[in-house]
Each structure stands twice: as structure tokens, then as C-alpha cells.
Design goal:
With about 220 residues, the chain is of the alpha+beta class. It folds into two domains: about 110 residues, Jelly Rolls (Sandwich); about 60 residues, Winged helix-like DNA-binding domain superfamily/Winged helix DNA-binding domain (Arc Repressor Mutant, subunit A, Orthogonal Bundle), CATH 1.10.10. Helix content is about 45%, strand content about 25%. The strands form two sheets. Strands 1, 2, 3, 4 and 5 form a five-stranded antiparallel beta sheet that branches. Strands 6-8-7 form a three-stranded antiparallel beta sheet. Helix 4 crosses helix 5. The protein is elongated, with a radius of gyration of 19 Å. It starts with 6 loop residues before the first helix and ends with a strand.
Length: about 220
């Protein structure tokens, strides 16, 4: 039976993954579904078996590990044009997820069923190359997180974090609370507030009620 191509999925693929060839895009569009994730909603929960690989086409997803005491350890963000490397690995190997992925703004994802993972890797070079590049870039991000924790003081980590946020969002405004930043950097809100105040005194940023503004 001929598979029906989802035109909405195909439209997102053409926009966010133009380097996929037409055969690959048509296959994904014929077997996948769209998932809309509201801000604050969980896309992946630690401990669950994954039935899909997710391609992010709108919004922003935060990935983190959570301790038994509820503390968060930030890993990285997924944005438009990104795929969740961990969902690729866990889905293909039928392992439970060890991370949680939560939308920090309204987001949209293309959900590819697990049963197509092997076919995509074996028979579609564009997907294979994309998957390898995804693994590489995520590994580099994890190395950066490790280096920050092990080798840098908190003020250096905060400056690097803010720089990455401004660059990633392509904006001079960050709508993040001090507590959200503290969670991402695994420290206290009081520490972050104090260090942000120092950056403001240096003229690097301006602290507003609902956002942080980049000055320099």
C-alpha cells in the first residue's frame, strides 16, 4: 500500500532540513507525525522507553539530568533544525532514557517511529551523515559542560553561559530568571544574583525585571 505524505511534515523538512534529499524527506513525511509541545511540557521523561526519534522544527527544548533529590544538571538545548541524539540512541537500542527534555517555549517536533531507525541509518546516507554530525556536536557540547564544571570558576561559567545564550537566541535579551540560570549551572540563586550584579556594575549587562539585556 502506498504511503501518504504528510504535507505539513514535508513543509517543515524543506524549511529546517533542506540538505535531506527528496527521497529521505518523502519517507520521513510518510511515516512521521507532528507533536506540539507547550512551554513547560515534558517531551522526554527520564526512565521511559522511547518510541520515537525527535526532530525539532520550532521552539527550544532543554535537556537535563535530575538527581534523586530533584537537583538539575543542565546538558544542552535543542532548537530548530536539531535532533535529539539521545532519543536516536535510546530508541534504536531500546533503552530507557537517562535524561529529561522539557520545552522552555512552545515547540514543535517531527516524531519518527522507532521501527524506521535502522532503515534510515542503513539506506539513507543523508540521514547517516546527519546522525553522525548530531552525535559529534552533542559530544562537543557535553565536553564544554564538563570543562566548565571542572576547570572554570562560577563567574567564568556564568559569562560563558550568557554568551552562549545570547548567541543561540540571536538576541540581546534573555527572558530567564535568576533561579533558572542557577538550575542550569547547578548553583544557588543567591550566587547567580550576586555575579549578575557584578556584571551589571561592569557595564556588560543590564538587569531588568523580566529579562537580562546584553550591553557589550
Amino acid at each position: 500500500m502506498q504511503q501518504v505524505i504528510d504535507e505539513i511534515v514535508l513543509s517543515y523538512l524543506n524549511k529546517q532540513f533542506p540538505y535531506f534529499n527528496d527521497e529521505l524527506k518523502n519517507l520521513i513525511a510518510s511515516v512521521s507525525s507532528i507533536r506540539y509541545i507547550s512551554k513547560g511540557e515534558t517531551l522526554i521523561q527520564a526512565g521511559q522507553y522511547l518510541k520515537h526519534t525527535a526532530l525539532i522544527v520550532e521552539g527550544r527544548i532543554k535537556l537535563y539530568r535530575e538527581s534523586e533529590y530533584g537537583d538539575e544538571a543542565f546538558m544542552y538545548y535543542l532548537e530548530s533544525g536539531n535532533a535529539c541524539a539521545l532519543s536516536m540512541l535510546c530508541a534504536s537500542r531500546q533503552k530507557t532514557s537517562e535524561i529529561t527534555a522539557k520545552a522552555i517555549e512552545d515547540s514543535t517536533a517531527i516524531m519518527i517511529p522507532i521501527q524506521y531507525t535502522d532503515e534510515l541509518m542503513k539506506y539513507h546516507p543523508d540521514w547517516y551523515n546527519f546522525a553522525i554530525e548530531t552525535y559529534r556536536s552533542r559530544f562537543e557540547e557535553m565536553l564544554e559542560v564538563f570543562d566548565n564544571v571542572v576547570f572554570k570558576a562560577m563567574d567564568e561559567r556564568l559569562e560563558a553561559y550568557l554568551k552562549n545564550q545570547f548567541k543561540s537566541l540571536q538576541s540581546n535579551r534573555l527572558e530567564l530568571t535568576h533561579q533558572e540560570i542557577a538550575n542550569d549551572l547547578n548553583t544557588s540563586r543567591e550566587v547567580i544574583s550576586r555575579l549578575l550584579k557584578k556584571l551589571e556594575q561592569k557595564g556588560d549587562i543590564a538587569l531588568n525585571r523580566k529579562y537580562i539585556e546584553k550591553i557589550k
